[in-house]
Amino acid sequence: MVNVSRWTGHEAGLLRQALRMSVRAYAAHLGVGIRTVSKWEKLGTDTCPWPDTQAILDTALARSDAAVQARFDQLMGSFPGRRPTRTPSLTVADYETWTEDLERSAVCLDRQDFSFAASLLERWLGRVRTRDLDDRGLYLYGRSLVLSGDLRRLQGTLQDLMTAKRLYCDAHAVFTELGIPRRAAQIELSLALAHRGVGDLTRALAYIDTARSNGRFETPLQRVQIDTAHGHILLTDPATRSAGDSVLDRASDTATRYGLKHQLRSIKTVRESEEYA
């Protein structure tokens, strides 16, 4: 059976053909919307399903009978050149400009200049296609997704928080594919805060545990970051507020010891936001 490392609309469409289902029946089979399947068929390799849908497609293929899998293998083999080795689609100057825009976006987020940050990020997310990017481009794309998630999370509406979760999941998939566990673990912290924002403390704490087990939080900055996120979540629940204060005290001590002034400001902001919540 062909192993699909990353589904696009093209592979999803081939699976529908192998199953010999209509668009409506296929959508019902997967538990997705008819419009979603239609978009896959229309855009092909120019669209990638969300990470949770990638898992649904993996399961649908794995659970198919031998005849369906054989037809899917045959259909996949009919397009040997459909996914060539990635070659850079952007120039060196493009990459430098993109990197600078990401740094400017991060500064804008610190200053809560959300409108300008959004324009800088959309300049790239609206321009590039992941299938055309080499590893350097995918890395910058993943960072752009994370900052876009931060932008949504900081704006704080329920819809923004739900969008932030989807953006973080997409970024997590990018960094996992690139084999950068440190970045993936940092995104798990962001996912924890997004779940905290929508009141799902159980999932938030689960992501903290996952980040601790998967990440390498060896530097003082990394230890302060995960303790700040953990403390922020614990402060939300009156039952764990005392534990949250203790975790933030530890983060503050580490930040003070190593001169991490920005992190000290973040810890102060967390405490103040919970005092007036």
Strand content: under 5%
Helix content: over 70%
User: Looking at the structure, what is the overall shape?
Assistant: globular
Question: Could you tell me how far the N terminus lies from the C terminus, measured between alpha carbons in angstroms?
Answer: 53 Å
Low-confidence stretches: 81-87
Give the strand tally: 0
Number of helices: 14
Question: What is the alpha-carbon Rg in Å?
Answer: 21 Å
Provide the succession of SSEs: HHHHHHHHHHHHHH
Decide which structural class fits the backbone.
Answer: mainly alpha
State the major sheet. none
Mean pLDDT: 84
Can you describe this structure?
With 277 residues, the chain is mainly alpha-helical. The protein is 74% helix and 0% strand. It has helices at residues 9-19, 23-30, 34-43, 51-62, 66-77, 92-110, 114-125, 135-155, 158-178, 181-197, 201-214, 220-236, 241-257, 261-275.
Secondary-structure map:
Layout: H1 9-19, H2 23-30, H3 34-43, H4 51-62, H5 66-77, H6 92-110, H7 114-125, H8 135-155, H9 158-178, H10 181-197, H11 201-214, H12 220-236, H13 241-257, H14 261-275
Helix pairs in contact: 1-3, 1-5, 2-3, 6-7, 6-8, 7-8, 8-9, 8-10, 9-10, 10-11, 10-12, 11-12, 12-13, 12-14, 13-14
Which properties best describe this structure?
277 residues, 14 helices, mainly alpha, 0% strand
Short characterization:
With 277 residues, the chain is an all-alpha fold.
